[in-house]
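Hi W.,

Here's what went into the run:
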Amino acid sequence: MTLQHYLVISAILFTLGIFAVLTRRNAISILMGIELILNSCNLNFAAFSRFMTPPEDISGQVIAIFGIVLAAAEAAVFLAIILAIYREFGSIRPNEVDTLKG
Amino acid sequence: MEITLTNLIFYGFALLTVASALVVVTVRNIVHAAFSLMVTLFGVAGLYVFLQADFLAATQVIVYVGGILVLILFGVMMTSGRLEMRIHIERGQLLLGGVITLALLMLLLTVIANTPIWKNLTDDGTALPPTTERIGELILNGPFLLPFEVVSVLLLVALIGAALISRKEVRD
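Here's what came out:
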């Protein structure tokens, strides 16, 4: 296994997440895309920590753990906002939530 | 590269991760997408094990599969009626999004293949000691103490904020 194996997997996960965010018309699917992006980012942190630093230095893994914590906080707030939007608009399609659109 | 059991398992995990992520972004039924996301998260946890990040792999399974995925499924159940389970996709958006995504993937792969300092870094397969103790040292008695405290305050803020946003409005 080389560093590039992990980077390629991470790049594929990242672009698939971007694809979901760009094309999906359901807020929860967009959240799944964002989770894929965050996972690819954490995988990169762990991979660089394994290959680019001496083996006893694991700060990259700690940063990845902080990334997981941030993802949890983000998912909680995201779903709270989705519930509020659903109560207000009766739908979670992002293009129907257009009150601020000029 | 010779075919060993380790390599086979690694490629199995890599294939599992990528294929299930592809299912997440293409399948029409949102519940199927959520369960496919679970497979992706387990696959990433397996890749963490290959990177000898045991604590990170355990955290990934506990927080993502046990927490975030359940949260997502709750969100699906509470907001999607029988009609909303199927995800609506517009044709033009699909084309434009696909082109942008492919261009981005090509760019990233070019960078990965051509960066000189990333080449020839191989995992020699030597076993490292478990990471949990050293991560605890780094977080509670080292350079990450301040970020740890800040992130705990952030979690509290997110918790209170989420409860405040999602509750029913009380009019007096």
